[in-house]
């Protein structure tokens, strides 16, 4: 099979034609992204104004309870499931209470 060498001017011409066709789409996509961002921010601001609490709900975990469950031979995942928290949070609280 013969390979042809493609000249750099041909490559440049192709890429310029592609850029001319894609550029208007890119501008439109950027504009659409700005509209979405503005809608999300205004929605969050409205929720805050109504007194809504945003974000992940706080979970309080007792370090002594973790120690009790560990003394019973429970695993980290079982403790997390029982206390309704994530494993990483249980580990963090256990390290802090040591």
Short description:
The chain has about 100 residues and is mostly helical. It has 4 helices and no strands.
What structural class do the secondary elements suggest? mainly alpha
Biggest sheet statistics: none
Give the SSE order as H and E letters.
Answer: HHHH
Mean pLDDT: 84
- Binned, the helix content reads over 70%
Low-pLDDT sequence parts? none
What does this protein structure show overall?
The chain is mainly α and 98 residues long. It has helices at residues 8-49, 63-71, 76-83, 87-97. Helix 3 packs across helix 4 (87-97).
Give the tags.
0% strand, 98 residues, mainly alpha, 4 helices
Q: Layout of SSEs?
A:
Blueprint: H1 8-49, H2 63-71, H3 76-83, H4 87-97
